[in-house]
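Morning - zinc ion inputs below, output right after.
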Amino acid sequence: MPSHRDFFVLKTLHLPSRLGLSNNAQVLLLAYDEYRRGLIDSAELGRQVRLSPNKRQAITNTIAKCASYMRRKPEEVKNCIDILQTCTEILSIAGEVVGRPRYPVYNKKSSTCHCTKHEKPSWYNSHKFLNLGIASTSKAMNEEVMKFFYKNYRVDFSCTCEMLTMLDSNKELRENIRSVRVYWVGKVADTAFIKLAECPELRKLTLLISRSTTNKLNKREEELAEYFSSRRSTRVTEALGLDELLTIRGLTDVDVQHVSLKVSERRSDDEKASLTALLVSRLMQPRV
Ligand SMILES: [Zn+2]
């Protein structure tokens, strides 16, 4: 967790009044200070947020206000980021997001082009709240803020098509993205992983797999399929994108997870373990 200053300190800088933060927002930001100092626990903080739609709204509004203030006053970026971070952590504690916050990969240009072809992983909708909150303010987000997000938080993609579209259309994302979670499905998985391999700051990758991962096979397997009768089960290594995936280098963390809990959609744990071992052996090699 990146360290940031207490809201109390920011208050002494009169930041809340300059930002025009509501009472509800200030109450929550101070409650977060108390949580950090151990005076209240995460359950209590989460309860305060969940029980009040107004407070939840106050947090989203605060995010929007910070974003627009930063644009007008670049010298205040650091202070505003402290508040933004607190807001996202409060939402995270309140269970509005699963794990670390999903960060806005949507810019003005691409906000409508995320993929609808694939079934979204179960966590996808749980991110919606934060997505909408930030996406609606993304116009106001300046480059520096977006860079901060991409460097500090994991960016989730619901399929490789979405990842490719975003990496293609967003230079800040491409140049700063550090941690990615992506569901390995889609007809452009090969191109998408080539793009990902080109991201200079990429250090962490979580790959989500399911039976659908092999819906699209790589070229070699497609060719062989003309000669060999189809088998009942395919190996994950036959999926489109494996060769390209294996060209990624310089990672410090690689993980493979099942996307679904449903047994019928899951690949075997053996397969998951083998793929993890393969990826660790290749992707964690140094970049040349
Ligand atoms: Zn897709």
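Note: The chain has 14 helices and four strands.

O.
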